[in-house]
Write a structure and sequence with these properties.
The protein is an all-alpha fold. It has 13 helices and no strands. Helix 6 packs antiparallel against helix 9 and helix 10 packs across helix 13.
């Protein structure tokens, strides 16, 4: 996905140009699939990336029952381009810790319906079973922005340490989901015009970039809640 790197650095411009989402920014296939990865994808050895690429492609061929080497992904039966999704105005208004809890419960319930996008990622799931990816992104982005707004407005001063920790966990997870879904959506849009042969060259890097476990580790290192112990 080398060609889209500049667009990825400018999420808002990218999504407006593609007219897919109006708000944007900037895995595990299975434990055994990503057990070969180091803590940072940048340090992954060439041999490990090749092995991961082979695993992802081979699993895709098994799951589709075909070996579409020369057919672009967008022409395959069952390919899905993520549909735009926006929450209703009332759902975008998240008020206080209670509102964050309710929004977070909906978000985690939704992500749980799509393990192939978050916990056991596969090429087949990302390209064929991505129905909920835009909604997950929208809910995650709205929750993250709401928590950030509470912090900016100093609306958390009354929270105790346990509540601040809870809010931090929700902030981290919403950021992880927002980033993961951004990587998935941009990959699907890019892959639509590529053959399986073309995908193979960068698929390891692409799946490392959308690995929610690695994203969570990175996000957890710098996110804090002001005034708390975390």
């Amino acid at each position: 996905m080398v060609e889209t790197s500049l667009d990825r650095r400018n999420g808002d411009l990218f999504w407006k140009k593609k007219n897919l989402l109006t708000t944007a920014e900037v895995l595990k296939k299975a434990e055994k699939s990503f057990s070969m990865l180091p803590e940072s994808g940048a340090g992954t050895k060439t041999g490990q990336k090749s092995e991961l690429a082979e695993l992802l492609i081979n699993d895709f061929v098994k799951e589709t029952g075909t070996d579409p080497q020369e057919t672009v992904m967008g022409d395959l039966p069952g390919f899905k381009m993520p549909e735009p999704f926006m929450l209703d105005p009332e759902e975008r208004e998240i008020i206080g810790l209670t509102g964050c809890r309710e929004a977070f419960a909906k978000l985690t319930a939704l992500t749980g319906e799509y393990p192939g996008l978050f916990n056991i990622q596969s090429l087949y799931a990302v390209l064929f079973n991505n129905e909920g990816v835009a909604e997950c992104r929208e809910r995650a982005a709205v929750l993250r922005e709401s928590i950030e707004g509470m912090i900016a407005e100093d609306a958390i001063r009354h929270l105790n340490d346990i509540e601040r920790k809870e809010l931090l966990e929700m902030l981290i997870e919403s950021e992880v989901i927002a980033r993961t879904t951004f990587e998935i959506i941009s990959f699907v849009m890019w892959a639509a015009d590529r053959t399986l042969v073309e995908l193979k060259d960068t698929i390891a890097e692409d799946f490392i970039a959308m690995n929610s476990t690695l994203i969570r580790k990175s996000v957890s290192q710098y996110m804090t809640i002001p005034g708390g112990k975390e």
